[in-house]
Every structure is written in C-alpha cells, then in structure tokens.
Amino acid sequence: MWRFHYLEEQKSGQRLLCKKLFGYLLMKSIKNILPKEVVPGITGYYAHGDNLSFGYIIIKAGAIVPEHHHVHEQITFIVEGELDMTIGGEFCPLKAGMYHVIPSHTPHSAIARIDCIAIDVFSPVREDYKSPSAPVDWEK
After folding, report:
1. Model's pTM, two decimal places?
2. In the prediction, which pLDDT does 54 show?
3. What CATH number does the domain containing 51 carry?
C-alpha cells in the first residue's frame, strides 16, 4: 500500500501543499528557481531531470528569439498570450492553449505579439540552461 505524507510549507505568504513519498518532495514552486534571461525580454525558470528540461517562460510583448537550432527536441506550449513562431521555414502563430513540437536541429524563431507565458520542454537536458549566467548554446 502506498503511503503519502503531506507537508505544509510557508513561502512568500503562500501556503504550498507538498506530497512526500519515500523521502522525496514531489512538488516545488517553479518561481523558487533562479531565473535565466535567454534573450532580452524572455526570462525562464528551468527545472531539469535526468533526460529533459522543463521551462516556465515569461515573454514580454515584442521580444524576439532569433532564428537558431539545437540538438534538443522542443515542445512549446502557450499558457497565455500570442507567439508568432517560424519553424522549419513555416509560419506558426500560436495562441493560448496551443503547442508545437520542434524536431531536433530544426531552425526556428519567434516574436511575441503580446505578453506571453509559455512552457518549453527540451530533450535531452539543456545543460546551458542550468546556470543563470551560462551563455545560451544556440547554433545559427
């Protein structure tokens, strides 16, 4: 039989409920991670597992991700806002609730039409996103 222990944690005036299973906390607040400015106007909070990286991304209106590619497969999901992406030469306007899978080594770029919140998932792990001060490793 599974046994879960519940812990309450006070942080920044918010009450967080964490599940503890076999000594591991399963739930954490993404905003407790040091932010990384990917390019001006785009800030991410990145969590890393053994095989993937997960990012909660805040994008200011007008922010631009220049065309680049990388070895990582990427899934971008728009939580709020509108992000115009060009992926593999194809225009892909994304609105809240939409996602796109970007294959490894596929050139892509983006511009935020309005303020956005997005989720980015990368596999394998984005080693260059582990440190807020490390340079972004994009191939242009």
Report:
1. 0.79
2. 97
3. 2.60.120.10
Please indicate, yes or no, whether residues 46 and 16 belong to a single structural domain of this protein: no
Tokens 């969590």, residue located: 47
Residues 74-111: tens digit of each pLDDT: 999 999 999 999 999 999 999 999 999 999 999 999 99
Domain of 3 in residue numbering reads as: 1-29
Question: 136 to each of 12, 102, 111, 115, 140, how far by Cα in Å?
Answer: 30, 18, 18, 22, 12
Phi-psi region of 38 (alpha: psi -120 to 50; beta: other; left: phi over 0): alpha
| Pairing of the two strands 53-59 and 116-123 | antiparallel
Four-residue CA torsion sign, 38, 99, 88, 105: positive
| CA–CA gap between residue 113 and residue 6 (Å, rounded) | 41
